[in-house]
Amino acid sequence: MSDADPSQQRIISIELDEGSIIWRNPDVEQERRVAIFDILEDNRFVPQRGHPDGYTGPYRLRLRVEEGRLIFEISREDHSPLEAIILGLGRFRRPIRDYFAICDSYYQAIKTSTAQQIETVDMARRGLHNEAAEMLMDRLDGKIAVDFDTARRLFTLICVLHIKG
To answer: pTM score, two decimals?
Structure first.
């Protein structure tokens, strides 16, 4: 991995398994669009398992949830599959639930609260988001190296995958 070009160790395409998402409101859809845009603009994504041919990026990523597991399907630039990383979602259930609750509070605050109240809710939302990103980085340790901002945006997309209506 030390000979890898860091500019290639990144996600160039990201897709969510739309089959597992039943419903999204406009706020959530906007969060999804922004997270994907931001990931594609700037990210660090380095699968830790070496590949026989030495491939080190760039990567296409498909995220899906199946039977309580988060699956990172990683492919080469030419769409040929490389590997799948599977994480249990048990540890993420509470952060996801808390993040949804604080986001609901935030969207309500935007409509009816003072600037100070909105800022307070937004700080709490960012704090939860940061904690979840750190947890995701820990869970990916030894599997995929990501930077903090990439982890934050991936957590947003993980939340989107959990919306069931």
So the answer is: 0.85
